Amino acid sequence: MNLDYVPVLLQTVIAVVVAVSMLGGAILIGQRGRRTPAKDTAYECGKDPIGPTNPRFSVKFYMVAMLFILFDIETVFFFAWAVVYRQELANGPQILFAMLFFLAVLGVGLVYELRKKALDWTRHG
What we know:
The chain is mostly helical and 125 residues long. The chain has four helices and no strands.
């Protein structure tokens, strides 16, 4: 057995023991209440849960969510590029041109979004 993994194994065992002991203690010591229909209903901000359970969202919501994920993933690429930039620049400027091409593609996408008014919050629908 590799001794490098002993601390990880020990931490995992301690975490499982602590979790099981907390749950077991709550079951043994905890107070049991009576179940009533009022206690079994869903609690949402103090309002009674009436109406449809799955409200419909505007397509605009999904568009903004997808754009957020897209720009979030781009940030990860920028970070990875920044970490290796100085080392790879010694091999030639290809890393700089690759990132400039990536930025150009992002710029085209941003211009497209702005022209389609995907980021316009004042429009309805």
